[in-house]
């Protein structure tokens, strides 16, 4: 039932926004009482947070599944960068929520309201970098710092593309930046 409530909430939050959507609206969409919602969630904010966290977790799982067949670390990193940046397009409800609430994406781990949901995505990136260093494909560098840098660049472009609506140009700048990071400026 909790998943059904979150699914209904996501639809309504995407259509009307967080402020205009009420717990009564969500309960009505499911033909249940408002009190039934409170069996699973403390309040509307808790429901919103858990629903968005679930969307972020689904996103990470999708990326992880997408790169599972990639055997080379460089191929895996490039594929991951592309799949991850385009994923929101596959979920219009999530896109609508992000456009209304760009604070879902944060450049500062200390201010990230979804840190617990975002941390596994960083860990996935960390694992790919670790794999590349171990295979001798990537330089032996500080993987913690590199993960933080790459994840920050990724988050910045998510904000630009989905939060600020930069669209195709934002994608192109992002992929060009990934190419620059991997291949450098040297000719």
Automatic annotation (TrEMBL):
Please list which residues make up the signal peptide: none
All copies of domain HTH tetR-type, residue ranges:
1-59
| InterPro entries with a match to the protein in the record | Homeodomain-like_sf, HTH-type_TetR-like_transc_reg, HTH_TetR, Tet_transcr_reg_TetR-rel_C_sf
GO MF entries: DNA binding
Could you list this entry's UniProt keywords, alphabetically sorted.
Answer: DNA-binding
One matching Pfam family is: TetR_N
Q: Which PANTHER family match?
A: HTH-TYPE TRANSCRIPTIONAL REPRESSOR SCO4008, TRANSCRIPTIONAL REPRESSOR
Q: What is this protein called?
A: HTH tetR-type domain-containing protein
Source organism = bioreactor metagenome
